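Reviewer has doubts. Consider these tokens.
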Amino acid sequence: MNDQSRMMKMERQTQKRVAHILSANQAADLFAYLDIRLQEEGCNHTHRFTQGWLDDHVSFMQHDAVLTELEDMGGYCDCEVLRSCYEDYEL
């Protein structure tokens, strides 16, 4: 990766940090929950565990926005939320 690519990536990450719907604490809780659930049951390539966590922790009105944000970070299913989105929250 060249210097310009690194700078562009850092800029995108900075912009994403500002736009996060979940707080850092909420994201950490979600990732811990997903880690446990995925170890127990594995991923079925949906957001079933993410959706379950959202039901208990986030206003229903925010569900679609959170899922869209996670998908924008590469989280198209539970295991990808854990794998791809963790770094964007810089936990």
